[in-house]
Amino acid sequence: MAAAERTAPQLIAQHRPTLDQALEAIRTRAYWSPHPEHPKAYGENGSLGMAEGKAAFDALLGSRLDLGQPGTDDWVGGEVSPYGIELGVTYPHADIDVLLPAMRAGGRAWRDAGPETRAVVCLEILKRISDRTHEFAHAVMHTSGQAFMMAFQAGGPHAQDRALEAVAYAYAEQVRTPENAEWTKPQGKRDPLALTKRFTPVPRGIALLIGCNTFPTWNGYPGLFASLATGNAVLVKPHPRAVLPLALTVQAAREVLAEAGFDPNLVALAAERPGEGIAKTLAVRPEIRIIDYTGSTAFGDWLETNARQAQVYTEKAGVNSVIVESTDNYKGMLANLAFSLSLYSGQMCTTPQNLLIPRDGIRTEDGPKSYDEVVADLAKAVGGLLGDDARAGALLGAIVNPDVKARLEAASGLGEVALASREISNPEFPDAVVRTPVIVKLDGARKYWEGADSEAAYTSECFGPVSFAVAVDSAADAVDLLRRTISDKGAMTVGAYTTSQEVEQAVQEACLEECAQLSLNLTGGVYVNQTAAFSDFHGSGGNPAANSALCDGAFVANRFRVVEVRREA
Amino acid sequence: MAAAERTAPQLIAQHRPTLDQALEAIRTRAYWSPHPEHPKAYGENGSLGMAEGKAAFDALLGSRLDLGQPGTDDWVGGEVSPYGIELGVTYPHADIDVLLPAMRAGGRAWRDAGPETRAVVCLEILKRISDRTHEFAHAVMHTSGQAFMMAFQAGGPHAQDRALEAVAYAYAEQVRTPENAEWTKPQGKRDPLALTKRFTPVPRGIALLIGCNTFPTWNGYPGLFASLATGNAVLVKPHPRAVLPLALTVQAAREVLAEAGFDPNLVALAAERPGEGIAKTLAVRPEIRIIDYTGSTAFGDWLETNARQAQVYTEKAGVNSVIVESTDNYKGMLANLAFSLSLYSGQMCTTPQNLLIPRDGIRTEDGPKSYDEVVADLAKAVGGLLGDDARAGALLGAIVNPDVKARLEAASGLGEVALASREISNPEFPDAVVRTPVIVKLDGARKYWEGADSEAAYTSECFGPVSFAVAVDSAADAVDLLRRTISDKGAMTVGAYTTSQEVEQAVQEACLEECAQLSLNLTGGVYVNQTAAFSDFHGSGGNPAANSALCDGAFVANRFRVVEVRREA
């Protein structure tokens, strides 16, 4: 489509209704999404269907993805899919002393375009990405190791939802202050004082997105789109194992920006050579004024400490707990938990790790169950869910990297194994590393976790398909351990199963005071590790697992500032 | 008034209309204020009149201000008015290991009260403060050195406006997310997924307000009320020379909180012994999760670097410039500038310091004026404005502390003195140090300020009644120097006088890019150093002078977090 066909008024006419719906959704937080979840919903009106998406992905393999970026001094790549295939895609490697200045060149026009035009340009970028959802699904699958269906949904529509949500928040925040105001102050019998004021949202500078391995689009889009929609240029530094999904995103953004008459260099990719570690270099460049990061606590803390010239938004590690105290739907609880532990081999920042279970057992609608029974029944539920290899593979995906595999293998040495991890073969991808989760029994007596220097295994994150069935002395102790875990290590999610008003109140109060998101008594088709854009907050920004939440006013409000020019009327 | 008479519904009925007007004002940014500026507007409906306010202040002198705080282990004080009188008021000195825990005790009830009740309780506190405006005026005057009328207006209604503005932003931010939501996601032919969600704004913890000497209420209230309205307890650490205005504020807050059924310890005072420096101790306490600070760049930077457990909002030093390039109202310009330089002896963070004037002179409606003529005419305008000692005193107030006096005295050695500072006697307060501003001519040739290690006097803040008439080579150079000054040192305000569209555009673009608030061609009764709540932003939060602006969404959005509890419907 030619540039002339993508004027701002056309984009506004096309996308404003969607923006308005998104603005309404974040206000009501009812269910809403403009991005279909079903693979068969694609293939018409310009979007790639299943076969076309696969073909588009296959055509990328072994290719050079030339984004037309200035300062490209080399071509780099080397992604190997967790499913075993080498992607062979190469990407531009940038001389950042050339690229960063080039990214600023188009900044004034982007700033002057204003919040509405920026929002609809972002929505057009999302439209292009949505049209390529099938292609992105393969790219996400073969970088994150997610199973196809999850890569399709979480990497496609759900990620696009989170992006749109960020655009909506960014737009709303910028238009809270009017463009113009007339200010007239009465002066008794004298003439009033009268001023004309103009307010302009201005960007902070260049934003840096540091992507992660497991959810390159879902975790990357909110920061990328929030920064772009608030007028900043965005430099995308993907995880070296998950470049392709974000490179395709940059490609789509650059296309749309150019077609709409803006400088494509407002969005650029920073791919790196193996071991180059350019995130550390980029993060402290004076041009970088915003950083979004998902990854390890160590590097997140490093960024917060060292990138002082930037606003730093981090999602780091946490330790997620589920308190299992009582239930009136024992089977539903077990099924729900089994799914939560299995989905994407527990490689979600939201997957429960610690199951806090009173050692005297729990109450259920079928009478009391001992701690051992609960753990055994949960192991059985996981085993049943994953009993069929094909179904198991579609749920588990592949182990994303050797570190996770090593951690899984070490976990069985931590205590009594209630459910051993099982190796599963994937007929389509024989080199994929597919493993079922391990459940390890641990003693949660207070003496093991009280005290600042606790070395109890369940007080640290063990990222991957590893869960601990922690025998605690009482429900009250479970709540205390929950509080301590959130306070010390953070948590992206908390779950609880209880039929007791008293315990429910205690868990709620713990979550309110320690600032963690709580799912209560989930026994159906919603899982503690899933959040929906426009309705659920992902993280709270108030405990050590993350300093921001997806998405709220705080996530966008400091990505721009408002400059006022006033003069006498 | 008894506690029972201050229920939440009654406070809502009383104050909700004011809150709604404030919410509308921050949206339109038209003129609005519920707090009368004229001293004669007080004295009825429960507010103290002029004589009563003075009597109330006099009664405070030499007294012990017992706030009924827990952990009080001593009584401290020692304020000496810049007008020469010893206040002799003593304040509770706290054992912080007792006080901080006590401040948390009432936190849950305050959180559970919700945004609206918190807002109207804050408005009731402001009502009590407003009723005592005459008393506060004397307290501000005799700590800051402001002249009475300024202390009355800036320390009274204008500060109360800024507080109300912060409450309005805080309320709006918290109610962006609904209390409850029903979420129903269609599942094709299967039953929909349905969740009930509850969203609760939760505070970060205890907020610390570190007050300043010159504007204890105006600069202190936004942070104090933003934190309190978002559910946090607030510990007020005043500047040792300006304790009384904030101590009276704490007193009013504690009274209202108790009457409304909340724990008065949600707001407490931390007065200190001479040289104790408790701000540094308090700032890194783990209980302190928010810090608001106005003061030196050195300590602001220290807070940002060291108080990593807290959200830190700082207003630091800056170098404010006015470009004088051309005007069609030469007299109006001179009068406006003369007032700006004189008001409160230039002891405002918004007072212009550098007057950037082309060395070849400027164009006016009366023809060209040389650089020397402009500077001489400005000196004459200041001299005329301050020619009458009584009028001068009412405008200048007193020099706030010996540091400012020393800086003023040193300034005349920096270059050719265009206007010498003059000593003025105050018949009512013979010990007051009252001085007119000095204007010093300096050479602004590019070679003197280009380069990172410039030692040109005008590249640093010289806080007090000191202005530099900087001869620049051209208007373009003036804009370049402006950019560099903002970028290196920050600026709370920028002014410009120009009739040239081109120069106006260049100055505007510099302010948009460097993120500074611009006043253009002010020749009447509005001055570059004054901002009005609900309409003007104070600072931008985007240059080194301050990391936040008064007031916007970013100022409030991260003082609380939202915790979601979801369960199956």
TrEMBL record, chains A, B:
Which organism does this record belong to?
Streptomyces montanus
Tell me which NCBIfam families the record gives: PaaN_2
Domain Aldehyde dehydrogenase: residue ranges:
94-525
Q: Supply the name of the protein.
A: Phenylacetic acid degradation protein PaaN
Q: Name one GO molecular function term.
A: L-glutamate gamma-semialdehyde dehydrogenase activity
Sorted alphabetically, the keyword list is: NAD, Oxidoreductase
Its signal peptide is: none
Which biological processes are named by the entry's GO terms? L-proline catabolic process to L-glutamate
An annotated GO cellular component of this protein is:
cytoplasmic side of plasma membrane
**What highest taxon heads this organism's lineage?**
Bacteria
Pfam families, sorted: Aldedh
